[in-house]
Amino acid sequence: MLEIRFHGRGGQGTVVATILLSKAFFQAGWEVQSFPFFGVERRGAPVEAYLRLDKKKILVRTNVTAPDHVVVQDQTLLQNIDVTRGMKPGGWVLLNSPALPENLDPYRGMKLACVDATRIALRHLLGSRTHPIVNTAMIGAFARMLAMPPLEAACGAIREEAPSDPEANIAAARDAYNEVILHGSIS
Questions:
Q1: Which tens digits make up the pLDDT trace of 93-120?
Q2: Alpha-carbon gap, residue 46 to 40, rounded angstroms
Q3: Which residue of 13, 20, 64, 118 could cross-link 50, Cys pair, CB 3.0 to 4.6 Å?
């Protein structure tokens, strides 16, 4: 079983990202689970969402405390939240960031990937200048980083489920798929 934890802020589409990915993985033949964990339910508040994938039925019904991979939709969360807590060694951390963080110590033994999802979302007019919606760009980068789900399955889920402007969201996912930088293992 693969377990992925998403970190974001309210209003960025963090929960929707896990739902869209779960639909794409389901279409690709996986068993899936997707669910959120909310603290304070307000725009801008930290949000976690979880995604589980397996080729057999998933019986676990708890939060993801030992993720294989982590997705961070807002790099400002790195200042106050240990996004790697409980993470299994060797997993990927996907950051919405144009570059690697200055301090790489928290990522030792992990693999890092970066994509400027904020810039991509703004390019495709997703959200507003002050509150870009980065989730579909992060989905595209995620698909490239793990080499799954197939990009076309992710785009199909976006086309069916995006709350607004599916074509712009698909374009953002495709751009992020092509622009994500896979830095690999941090030692």
A1: 999 999 999 999 999 999 999 999 999 9
A2: 8
A3: 64
